[in-house]
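Changelog-linked ticket: copper (II) ion example.
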Amino acid sequence: MGPGTCVRDTTNGEITFSGFVAELTADKSVGAWRFAPQQISVSEGATLHVNNLGGETHTLTEVKRFGGGFLDFLNGPSGNPIPAPECAQVVDGALVPEPPSDENIFIPAGGTATVHLEHGVTARYQCCIHPWMRLTITKD
Ligand SMILES: [Cu+2]
């Protein structure tokens, strides 16, 4: 959270920051923040093209198990108090984000990413900012 966080047009049809917090608190997720689809089945060696259609940065982070991200503010209300280690480490009680890498891709608003899948069985991806954003990829 900082300057510029969640700054976006709040005209009709857009969600306000207070609306975002209210929905997160009630549902443990915010429906407009999601991977679509949330589950896909692909052939070995497939290429995944991801477009960020939203108004803020998301991460596409491969994790062994789904967990929280690097923002306590969103981990607790979403029911993910423990961060996935691929998203953040706990250092002296504070969450320290893992740096961007080929397995931890930060995609800015309007940005894209391409991932070559080499998974054997099931691959799991989540957003390390909004940890309810989850994508499971299985092999055909
Ligand atoms: Cu996100």
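Closing comment: Example verified and attached. The pocket of copper (II) ion is lined by residues 33, 58, 127, 129-130, 133 (CB under 6 Å). Residues 7-11 have pLDDT under 50 and may be disordered.
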